[in-house]
Design a protein that fits this description.
metal-binding, ATP binding, binds magnesium ion, binds adenosine-5'-diphosphate, nucleotide-binding, 11 helices, Alpha-Beta Plaits
């Protein structure tokens, strides 16, 4: 462990830490709003991580500190944790302790020092990074022997039941399970996963991430409403989930649904098909072919699912107009980030075109970076 990480921990917690764990943020290549419909997703982990320096405590207390927080320690008793009692950022790590205890795992207290370079609220899943780093730390500190997918499911349980966000399992699976140089092709029903090689550099391509730096409040209630709409549609169609509706059966199914549910169903079914088409292209080494699929995915999120916004639409339009092969919003929506597939030689040009378009529209300057598929949660020291 670096002297600096140990010193930071010691300053806050007054003792030496026993280790450091890291878990990444993610971008989803394709497969948006499919994970709570039992469908397919294809995320990559980012090089950006949330790091947790930690040690066990014998007194059953959790003492939680974040370098991105307000400078105070949140001090909680493990046996008093229940949904609703923690309302600050600390609900994410506390929720993981709670979920592990609820599942019957023998854990005790801990001191945590959190530090992260995953942008928060940018659709890059800083929440899953925080949960998965916590889960990885507790798994090792208490010798639980849980697998990465098991930790991801417990992290999702923490976010759903303790924090109160009805998210699917994609973000946590990406943060826990991704490997270097691959995208994670995940069946969210069975959690069957395959690491699909994604060598952007060999194809002369880059994945440009454009963080629009906006998050519209509308998103919070809207996400739950969309999820409920999808579940209602599946129920009306007599299906376990929208994943069970094939593209061939889509037109007939749409005729049987009330008009307000049709676009939701069309998005989910066509999006699942875009994930499998993307994987076929990757398996055949045709990365450049992904461009139009990404852009079609964005149109579906914008026109059918209704989760786009002026900033993400403009980022997609400007990137494609400047020569990106394709672009789409990534993450739940109502702001957040856009990904664009761009020839290596055109990255600067595309980034500048997006910035110029934002200036003309009077939007705040977006943050851009290129992403390489990186590794999931692990112990680093
Ligand atoms: P996203 O996951 O897209 O970044 P969310 O709204 O799901 O957005 O999660 C962001 C929230 O996660 C923050 O508002 C904060 O409460 C919590 N969080 C994430 N990373 C940190 C961190 N390093 N320190 C403190 N809180 C964090
Ligand atoms: Mg999140």
């Amino acid at each position: 462990m670096t002297d600096e990480a140990a010193a930071d921990f010691e300053t806050v917690h007054g003792a030496r830490p026993s280790g450091v764990w890291a878990a990444p943020g993610r971008v989803n290549l394709i497969g948006e709003h499919t994970d709570y419909n039992d469908g397919f997703v294809l995320p990559i982990a980012l090089p950006h991580t949330t790091r947790i320096t930690a040690r066990r405590r014998a007194d059953g207390r959790l003492r939680l500190f974040s370098a991105q927080g307000d400078g105070t320690i949140t001090d909680l008793a493990l046996d008093r944790l229940k949904p609703g009692v923690v309302t600050s950022w600390a609900a994410y790590p506390a929720g993981v302790f709670w979920a592990l205890a609820e599942a019957g795992h023998a854990i005790g207290g801990a001191d945590l020092f959190v530090d992260s370079d995953v942008p928060t609220g940018a659709g890059l899943s800083s929440s899953a990074a925080l949960e998965c780093a916590t889960a990885a730390a507790l798994n090792d500190l208490y010798g639980l022997g849980l697998s990465a997918p098991e930790l991801a499911v417990l992290a999702q349980r923490a976010e759903n039941a303790f924090v109160g966000v009805p998210c699917g399992v994609m973000d946590q699976m990406a943060s826990a399970c991704c490997t270097d140089g691959t995208a994670l092709f995940l069946d969210t029903r069975t959690l069957e996963q395959r690491h699909v090689p994604l060598d952007l550099a060999a194809a002369g391509l880059r994945l440009l991430v454009i963080d629009t730096r906006v998050k519209h409040d509308l998103g919070d209630g809207a996400y739950a409403a969309l999820r409920a709409g999808c579940e209602r549609a599946a129920e009306l169609l007599g299906l376990p989930a929208l994943r069970d509706l094939s593209a061939a059966d889509l037109p007939a199914a749409l005729d049987r649904l009330p008009s307000e549910l049709r676009p939701l169903v069309r998005h989910v079914v066509t999006e699942d098909a875009r994930v499998t088409a993307t994987v076929e292209h990757l398996d055949a080494g045709r990365i450049a072919e992904l461009g139009p699929i990404l852009t079609a995915g964005h149109a579906s999120l914008r026109d059918d699912f209704g989760v786009s916004c002026a900033e993400t639409d403009l980022a997609v339009e400007a990137a494609v107009a400047a020569g990106a092969l394709g672009a789409r919003m990534t993450g739940g929506g109502f702001g957040g980030s856009v990904i664009a597939l761009v020839a290596a030689a055109r990255v600067a040009e595309v980034s500048e075109a997006v910035r110029a378009a934002f200036r003309s529209a009077g939007f705040a300057e977006p943050v851009t970076f290129t992403a390489v598929p990186s590794v999931g949660a692990r112990r680093t020291a």
